[in-house]
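User: My collaborator sent over this chain with a note saying "see what the structure looks like." That's all I know about it. Can you take a look?
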Amino acid sequence: MVDHSFGDLSLAALYDGLNPWGPGDDFYLELVMAAGSVLDVGCGTGQLLRRARAEGHSGRLMGLDPAAAMLVQARRARPDVEWVLGDTRARLWQGEFDLVVMTGHAFQVLVTDEEIQVCLRAVRAALGDGGRFVFETRNPGARAWERWTPERVYEVTADDGTPVRVWHEVEGGLSGGRVRFTENYEGVGWPAPRASHSVLRFLDKEALEGFLTESGLTVVEQYGDWGRGPVTPGCPEIITVARPAAGLR
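Assistant: Without extra context I'll predict from the sequence alone. Here is the result:
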């Protein structure tokens, strides 16, 4: 599970350990390497763009994230990528990107209709002619939040080499299409556990398409998993590829 709300430097340093490279990253990396200019919205520690640059991407790469602590990690690793603090309102976009991505379920952090609309309109403005917007959300039909229980404890290693235990607690389940949860951290020698509180929104395929259409984007492909399987009632993901609608700017 990915949480883009890390504002604490010590917690941001744990982020990559909690979210190791996986099939979804391979999916996005292929797209990034084929695009001349890329904007990663909600880039976190910038793992995707850092990897792309390391593998030889020579074009424009920009990572955008509202958590300064996350971008500290990104800048330390790859100063040769543009790292911008803020959300999609941070710039006036002028069609300068071939590809815009939102990875790690970052789209689900947009919990109100207005937040979604503002983000999607900015994405539309940032895309050049023929550009693509690619993102994924968890399929609400798979009910992933039911597995985010305190019994599932993860362990990562802090910068000082000590272990940190991490577990999740969901507050009341799905309500109004939203799930509230707490991510808890407990480290050796810490005076008390730390907590990061989050809300995620779960949208089905039809609702996603409605928001995209309203914002001038057209769905061209959707997949239910990282192997490009179909979207089914119980598939884990809704992976969407969208393009600017013809004649709209």
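A starting point for your reply to your collaborator: Residues 174 and 180 are 8 Å apart (CA to CA).
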